[in-house]
Amino acid sequence: MAERAVQIVKKGLKKVSDGSIKERLAKILFAYRNTPQSTTGLTPATMLLGRKPRTLLDLIKPHRADRVEQKQEKQKNLHDSHARLRVFQVGDRVYMYVKNYGSGNNWLSGSIVKCTGPVSFLVKLQDERGVVIRIRFEFEQLQVEVHWKRVKLEMHQKLEKINLQKSS
Predict the structure, then answer these.
(1) Minimum mean pLDDT among 50-59, 101-110, 134-143: which range?
(2) Sheet of 120-125, strands arranged across
(3) Which of 15, 57, 68, 139 stands 20 to 30 A from 91 (CA)?
């Protein structure tokens, strides 16, 4: 293995002709250390540093962040071309999709109690639970987040009432 490395360095020194011996050796070692190895699939520099060092080839390639930004802009424009604007006011009756792992209806009727943001609302469900749930209307989906502290408090209060009634 050491003989092979020496052979690679000697070949490289013959190919690189400009600069001093130190500069030529530095260029060859940099190229060697940035070449993926067949056994690991990683470069020695990546294994040592934990990241990929920048090379001249990286400067030639288009910047990845620009490409991501262009793609995101294209997605936004495509979405905006067919999206509907939804406007809700306090007191509006809405149906809310709540994941029900048991039996029963997943769509629950409720009314908007408070607007908490541009696309966020507090909704009072119109079922026997009477749980206040924060929902977020965004694009075509309806996302649900339960305020667990409030639900736990209400459930705890209900359990206390039941226990008091049983003990009386």
Answers:
(1) 134-143
(2) 93-97, 107-115, 120-125, 132-138, 141-146
(3) 139
